[in-house]
Amino acid sequence: MATPPGKEALNRIFLPQVTLCAATSVNIKATLRALQASMEKIVFSSCKLFTDVDITLDHPDISILPIRKIGSSEEYSKFMLSDMANYVETSHCLVVQWDGHVLNAERWRSDFLSYDYIGATWPQFKDGYDVGNGGFSLRSRRLMEACRDAEFQLSHPEDVAIGRENRKWLERIGMHFAPSAIADLFATERTGDLKTSFGYHGVWNMPKAIGIESFWQVYQELDDLGTVRHDFTRILKDVGDGPAGYSRMMRMILDYTKHHLGARK
């Protein structure tokens, strides 16, 4: 467990109620970078990476917890809905993925902890059930326990299972979802503003969120290039800016072609 801020952490926010978590079997280096970025100005109760990959890590504040291989997005959903609660002892858990993390710790709001679930809003849904994305999300432990109740309908993806398919039932048993205005302050994905949100999710946001050079370093260390398929054209345009932009674009196009040709075999 992380210790309270001392002289070395005077400018950091102390969140003893929150466990920082990530679960993956791919893109381990990028996931570790996301965890470290989230901890840069925040002291969490603890930080846990769930993975089957054998990692030697020299970071005193990150714990590696071995799990079965997560071989698909469906298996990720199952772990998040059924298993992760076993490892969280705090009132809340902040979930990150390799392509999303805390952007600006100063945008943390204490009232975030008033809700059982917050994730970036989904603009495609207009019925009020638009909160939200699970890739960068804050969820209470009691909500994670509720997801294991016999009345909770397990489905994939896990964030849609929570935020839409089971939301009415979750609210009936007392769970509180953040309103969309709060969710947009919490995170940017398809909606929100990187300049004002606490965190973000989505590889298409990364060049602007962390800068092109930093994104390019992350990209070159990815072991699963299929995770860059979303909004590929938009990402390509962003990496084309600045020095060496053309060579970065050509590299990404070549990688994209190789990956998709390989996937069809």
Could you walk me through the main structural features you see in this protein, from its secondary elements to its overall organization?
This protein is of the alpha/beta class and 265 residues long. It is built from ten helices and nine strands. The strands form two sheets. Strands 3-2-1-4-7-6 form a six-stranded mixed β-sheet. It has a three-stranded mixed β-sheet with strand order 5-9-8. The longest helix has 20 residues, at 245-264. The protein is globular.
Task: Please list the strands of the largest sheet in the order they lie side by side.
Answer: 3-2-1-4-7-6
Could you spell the SSE succession in H and E letters?
Answer: EHEEHEEEEHHHHEEHHHH
**Whole-number average pLDDT?**
94
Rg calc: 18 Å
Tally the beta strands: 9
Summarize the main sheet. Answer: 6 strands, mixed
Name the beta content range: 15-25%
Helix content: 25-40%
Distance linking N and C termini: 47 Å
What's the gist of this structure?
With 265 residues, the protein is α/β, with parallel strands linked by helices.
Question: Secondary-structure map with pairings?
Answer:
Blueprint: E1 13-23, H1 28-39, E2 42-51, E3 63-66, H2 73-83, E4 92-95, E5 100-102, E6 117-119, E7 137-140, H3 141-146, H4 158-165, H5 167-172, H6 180-186, E8 187-188, E9 199-201, H7 206-210, H8 212-220, H9 232-239, H10 245-264
Parallel strand pairs: 1-2, 1-4, 2-3, 8-9
Antiparallel strand pairs: 4-7, 5-9, 6-7
